[in-house]
């Protein structure tokens, strides 16, 4: 069973920044497609960003230029750095991992999921 553990969520005012981390003990982050998804109250889950094993980055249009996905292979950890946050970014954010090294269909979901970390942005 793949374990993904998110941390770093919290509350921030609009315009502020937050960073999320995803630890993956026993699962090699650098060898797989990894991503972040979010689900706001009353809305469907949506893909935020993904990173494949070859360094290709993917972003939802709504976060381009504001969010950055990255990984630290030595720490086996995935990150999401969020800037210029807005109230519409408020959601539960989930780390996800795919069994593939590529991310062609990342927006549709992945194989493994963390329990989520709440991000709240106030106006």
What does this structure look like?
There is one protein chain. By secondary structure, the protein is an all-beta fold. It has strands spanning 5-7, 10-13, 18-23, 34-39, 46-51, 57-59, 67-72, 77-82, 91-97, 112-113, 117-122. 0% of the residues lie in helices and 45% in strands. The protein starts with a strand and ends with a strand. The mean pLDDT is 96.
Outline the secondary-structure elements.
Blueprint (H helix, E strand, L loop, with lengths): L4 E3 L2 E4 L4 E6 L10 E6 L6 E6 L5 E3 L7 E6 L4 E6 L8 E7 L14 E2 L3 E6 L1
Parallel strand pairs: 2-11
Antiparallel strand pairs: 1-3, 3-8, 4-5, 4-9, 5-6, 7-8, 9-10, 9-11
What is the structure about, briefly put?
The protein has no helices and 11 strands.
Query: pLDDT under 50 segments (min length 5)?
Result: none
Beta-strand fraction estimate: 35-45%
Number of strands: 11
- Span of the ends, CA to CA: 39 Å
If you average the pLDDT, what whole number results?
A: 96
Biggest beta sheet summary? 7 strands, mixed
Q: What is the CA-based Rg, rounded?
A: 13 Å
Anisotropy-based shape:
globular
Helix content percent band = under 10%
Class by SSE composition? mainly beta
Oligomeric description of these chains? single chain
**Structure annotation, total helices:** 0
């Amino acid at each position: 069973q793949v374990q993904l553990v998110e941390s770093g969520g919290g509350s921030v005012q609009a315009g502020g920044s937050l960073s999320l981390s995803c630890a993956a003990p026993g699962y090699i982050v650098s060898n797989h497609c990894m991503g972040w998804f979010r689900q706001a109250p009353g809305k469907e889950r949506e893909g935020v960003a993904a990173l494949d094993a070859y360094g290709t980055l993917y972003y939802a249009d709504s976060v381009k230029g504001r969010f950055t996905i990255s990984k630290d292979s030595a720490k086996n950890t995935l990150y999401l750095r969020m800037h210029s946050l807005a109230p519409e970014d408020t959601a539960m954010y989930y780390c996800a991992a795919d069994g593939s090294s590529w991310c062609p269909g990342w927006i549709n979901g992945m194989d493994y999921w963390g329990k989520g970390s709440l991000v709240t942005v106030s106006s």
